[in-house]
Write a structure and sequence with these properties.
Layout lengths: L3 H15 L4 H37 L1 H12 L21
Amino acid sequence: MSVVPFVLMGAVVLMAIFGDHGLVRRHELRERQVEIKQQVEQLQAENTELRRQIRLLDTHRIGMKRLAAEELLMAEAGSTIYRFDRVGVHGVR
């Protein structure tokens, strides 16, 4: 009995698992796909918030003042800015 068929079969199995289009590579690509989808969702949420801010700035002068107060800590003379730190679930009691 020849060893060649077994060696060839072994090579085919190794290529199916570890080759460029093998199971390991497919698993890596699926993991990367999940990461990219999460990044896309995060960027879409950021874009939604930025669009909201743009609409607010375009339609309301008050919106512009609020954004300036929130982002730049700027206000008109004589105004007071109140700033609250967000406390997490394990915040100070």
